[in-house]
Design a protein that fits this description.
Helices cover 46% and strands 15% of the residues. By secondary structure, it is an alpha/beta fold. Strand 1, helix 2 and strand 2 form a beta-alpha-beta unit. The longest helix has 55 residues, at 321-375.
Length: 424
């Protein structure tokens, strides 16, 4: 292969490296994204509105899509063909059974702990989950987090087939009080933070009380996505003494998942929003505890890993988000291209010089063979004929780079010194 061919090959490899670098730094930052929330009045929906406002301040339009909850969110994320983000807590299907780890989605980490609540009618005088046998339980619409959690909890207790799960209607702020006042309903199972509208209404309902989960520790040991939390007496409202006793609850880790691939700059911006929205102290977490990098079986997004390790983009302290994102992409591409260029500039000279060095090595091998022939007593005419062949072949060697010329001159000098010895 000639030096000219190798040079063109090096240019081609460099262009390939540039294209790979541009691909590896991720897609450009879009002007809008899709965000999957939950039913109105739930923690998911309330938080989605906060994310929409935060990203809007930075020039990114967030299109909110109300869903039934985690089950629908996860399916939509897997099928997404555009940058999509959504809340998911626990990898459960609509029947409350654990599912296999999904592909084509990544996690930005855990945003907060989402408690599971069992509100029982005070008139029913219930003390534990097993007391729900033979009763009617409302747990929201099919595919909702509340209904999946209800199936999950009662299946683990071994009583799901002995409970009437009522109508598959959403637990909305408008309908939840009707459910609470319905004499035929013994309990309501819901999920969400205490401040969400639905949970607040249920906590304040005079007809309902919250059941503690007696075997919460056992659940958390068996299922890592669950965590035991304590809700002290009066924690929701001291004046109204809500709740009126200490509660032991289970909480699922609510994660923010994104479709894969997802623009790194937007992942960083979402985590900045998460720090503002979820970073405050709550009844179930200390200040700065969330967001966190815990993802369970799901892969942590690479931009999120960088955020948790190094913090948010430093450039955004001095320039707008979109300009900072462009500069970051430019710098990332520049570093990748420079690295590829340095590597190629080290490899190319070696590739170009390889044929030359092989010819030089062959020339020395032929001269060493000639030395041995002379030592064994071969006649001078034969030796000189062989010498002329070596002289002709080494004289035709092309020196591809000036830095290699001394090696060729040394070989030629050795060749002529041998000629002088052979003629003596």
């Amino acid at each position: 292969m000639s030096g000219k061919t190798l040079r063109w090959l090096a240019v081609l490899l460099f262009l390939v490296a540039v294209l790979m670098a541009l691909r590896l730094i991720g897609p450009k930052v879009p002007n809008e994204i899709r965000m999957l929330s939950g039913p109105e009045g739930t923690t998911y929906h309330d938080d989605a509105l906060r994310y929409q406002e935060f990203l809007g301040r930075h020039g990114v339009t967030v299109h909110l899509e109300q869903t039934s909850g985690s089950v629908e969110n996860l399916k939509a994320l897997i099928d997404a063909d555009q940058p999509t983000v959504g809340f998911v807590s626990g990898l459960l299907d609509a029947s409350g059974k654990a599912i296999e780890d999904p592909e084509d989605v990544e996690s930005l980490g855990t945003m907060y702990l989402q408690p599971l609540w069992v509100f029982a009618s005070k008139a029913a005088d219930l003390e534990q989950l097993r007391d729900l046998i033979g009763t009617r339980v409302e747990a929201g619409s099919k595919g909702s987090d509340a209904r999946s959690a209800a199936f999950f909890l009662l299946s683990e207790e071994g009583i799901s087939d002995e409970v009437d799960f009522g109508q598959e209607s959403p637990l909305t702020p408008e309908g939840v009080l009707e459910v609470a006042e319905n004499d035929k309903v013994t309990a309501v199972i819901a999920v969400g933070e205490p401040e969400s509208e639905v949970i607040d209404l249920l906590l304040r309902s005079p007809e309902l009380r919250v059941l503690s989960i007696r075997m919460a520790d056992a659940f958390s040991i068996r299922y890592p996505f669950l965590q035991v939390v304590r809700f002290p007496q009066g924690a929701h409202d001291i004046g109204a003494n809500i709740p009126d006793e200490d509660l032991q609850l289970l909480a699922a880790r609510a994660q923010l998942l994104v479709s894969d691939p997802f623009p790194p700059a937007l992942a960083d911006l979402l985590l900045q929003a998460a720090s503002e929205i979820h970073g405050k102290a709550t009844a179930f977490s200390s200040r700065g505890e969330f967001p966190g990098p815990e993802t369970g079986p799901l892969p942590l997004n690479r931009a999120a890993e960088n955020f948790y390790t190094n913090g948010p983009s430093k450039l955004q302290k001095f320039m707008p988000f979109r300009l900072a994102a462009w500069v970051n992409r430019f710098l990332a591409a520049g570093v990748a291209i420079a690295s590829a260029a340095v590597t190629l500039f080290r490899i190319v000279p070696a590739l170009i010089s390889l044929p030359f060095k092989l010819k030089i090595k062959r020339g020395y091998s032929e001269l060493h063979a000639l030395e041995k022939s002379a030592a064994s007593g071969t006649d001078s005419k034969t030796l000189l004929d062989e010498w002329r062949k070596v002289d002709q072949s080494t004289g035709a060697i092309k020196v591809p780079m000036r830095s290699l010329e001394p090696q060729w001159l040394e070989l030629r000098q050795y060749l002529h010194d041998m000629h002088d010895r052979l003629e003596v």
